[in-house]
C-alpha cells in the first residue's frame, strides 16, 4: 500500500538574532490511507512545527532545511505556492487549536465557506452555499442557516471549532491534519468533536494526523502513535503495542501520567519531573537524559533508531532493558 503522506528526514530550522535553531531534527514518518496517526509529546517538542512544515505554512524565519514531504506521491516541498494552494484546503486540510486565528473576522461564516468551496470545487454560488449549509448541519450545528449569517466572533468556541471542521471537510480531503483541535474546549465538547472526526473519517475514507499532548485522546483515536521529544521522533508504534510495551523511558513516563491507561487501580498519578530543554539542538547525546531514570554514560552518545518489532521503532540505546522493566 502506498502511503498518503511520507515525511523523510525532515529538518526544520528557525533563524533569529541568536543564530539558527533546529526545531525539528531529521524526522521520518508516514500516514496510510484511512489511518489515524497521533503525534504526542509535551509542549515545545516540535509537533506544530512538523505539521506546519507539511502544510507549507511555516511563518517568517522558519524553513525546511532538509528532507522531503510526499503527499499522494508528490513532493510538497518542491511545489510553487500556487500548486500548494490547489492541494491545501482541498485534498489536504488542517484545523488548528484556535479557530479564530484561521477564520476571517470580517466575513460571515457563510461567505467564507461558500467562497472556499467555489474556489476549490469550481461550483456556482448557490450550489456552494447549499454545500456549506449541508456541511454545517453534518457537523452538528443545530441552526446551520443562522450560523451561516453570523461573524466568527459571535460563535462559541465549540461552534467555531465545528465550523472549522466543516470548512476543512468541505472538499472531501484525503488527509486532515488536526493540531490540538480541542485543547481550548471543555471535555464534553471535546468528546463530541472527536466522535465527529471519527465518523467523518469512516464516511469519507480520509486519513487523520492528530497532534495532541493528551494520551487519553490517543487511546480513543489512534491506530498508530508517534512520540516526539525535543525535536526528534523517539518512538513509533501501533497504539496497542505502544500502550502494552512502551520501550522509551519518555513514552513510559507519558503513559504513567495518564489516568486509566496503565492497569493498576491504586496507582499514584505521576508527572514527569523536569522540562523539555530549550536549546535542544545543542545536545548531541540523548535529549531526554537529564530527566531519565535509566540514564548511563553510554546515553551521552548520539542515539539512533532501532526497530524492536514490526512497525515499532525506538531511539534509546537501553530500550531492551527499559521495555522489560515494569518497576519504573
Ligand atoms: N516562529 C518560531 N520562531 C522560532 N522558534 C520557533 C517558532 N515556532 C516554534 N519554534 C520553536 O520550535 C520548537 C517546537 O515548537 P512547537 O512545534 O510549537 O512545539 P509543540 O507544538 O510540540 O508544542 C520550540 O522550541 C519553539 O521554540
Ligand atoms: S538513551 Fe539513556 S538517557 Fe536516553 S532515554 Fe534511553 S536510557 Fe534514558
Ligand atoms: Mg503545538
TrEMBL record:
GO terms for molecular function: ATP binding. SMART domains: AAA (SM00382). It is a peripheral membrane protein. Residues 5-255 form the ABC transporter domain. Pfam families: ABC_tran, oligo_HPY. Its main location: membrane. InterPro entries: AAA+_ATPase, ABC_Ni/Peptide_Import, ABC_transporter-like_ATP-bd, ABC_transporter-like_CS, Oligopep_ABC_C, P-loop_NTPase. It is found in: Cell membrane. Keywords: ATP-binding, Cell inner membrane, Cell membrane, Membrane, Nucleotide-binding, Translocase, Transport. Belongs to the ABC transporter superfamily. This is ABC transporter ATP-binding protein. The lineage of its organism: Bacteria, Bacillati, Bacillota, Clostridia, Lachnospirales.
Amino acid at each position: 500500500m502506498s502511503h498518503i503522506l511520507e515525511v523523510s528526514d525532515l529538518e526544520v530550522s528557525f533563524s533569529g538574532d541568536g543564530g539558527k535553531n533546529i526545531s525539528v531534527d531529521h524526522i521520518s514518518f508516514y500516514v496510510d490511507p484511512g489511518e489515524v496517526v497521533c503525534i504526542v509529546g509535551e509542549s515545545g517538542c516540535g509537533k506544530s512545527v512538523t505539521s506546519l512544515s507539511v502544510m507549507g505554512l511555516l511563518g517568517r524565519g522558519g524553513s525546511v532545511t532538509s528532507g522531503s514531504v510526499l503527499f499522494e506521491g508528490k513532493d510538497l516541498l518542491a511545489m510553487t505556492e500556487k500548486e500548494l494552494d490547489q492541494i491545501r484546503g482541498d485534498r489536504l486540510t488542517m484545523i488548528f487549536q484556535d479557530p479564530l486565528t484561521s477564520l476571517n473576522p470580517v466575513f460571515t461564516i457563510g461567505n467564507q465557506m461558500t467562497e472556499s468551496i467555489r474556489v476549490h470545487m469550481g461550483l456556482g454560488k448557490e450550489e456552494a452555499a447549499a454545500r456549506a449549509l449541508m456541511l454545517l448541519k453534518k457537523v452538528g450545528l443545530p441552526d446551520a442557516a443562522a450560523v451561516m449569517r453570523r461573524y466568527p466572533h459571535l460563535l462559541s468556541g465549540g461552534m467555531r471549532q465545528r465550523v472549522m471542521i466543516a470548512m476543512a471537510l468541505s472538499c472531501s480531503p484525503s488527509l486532515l491534519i488536526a493540531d490540538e483541535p480541542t485543547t481550548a474546549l471543555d471535555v464534553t465538547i471535546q468528546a463530541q468533536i472527536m466522535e465527529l472526526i471519527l465518523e467523518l473519517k469512516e464516511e469519507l475514507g480520509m486519513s487523520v494526523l492528530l497532534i495532541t499532548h493528551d494520551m487519553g485522546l490517543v487511546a480513543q483515536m489512534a491506530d498508530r502513535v508517534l512520540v516526539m521529544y525535543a525535536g526528534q521522533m523517539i518512538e513509533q508504534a501501533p497504539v496497542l503495542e505502544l500502550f502494552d510495551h512502551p520501550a522509551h523511558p519518555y513514552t513510559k513516563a507519558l503513559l504513567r501520567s495518564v489516568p486509566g491507561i496503565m492497569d493498576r487501580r491504586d496507582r499514584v498519578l505521576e508527572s514527569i519531573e523536569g522540562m523539555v530543554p530549550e536549546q535542544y539542538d545543542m545536545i548531541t547525546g540523548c535529549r531526554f537524559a537529564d530527566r531519565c531514570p535509566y540514564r548511563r554514560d553510554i546515553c551521552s552518545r548520539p542515539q539512533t533508531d532501532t526497530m524492536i518489532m514490526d512497525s515499532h521503532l525506538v531511539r534509546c540505546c537501553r530500550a531492551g532493558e527499559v521495555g522489560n522493566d515494569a518497576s519504573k
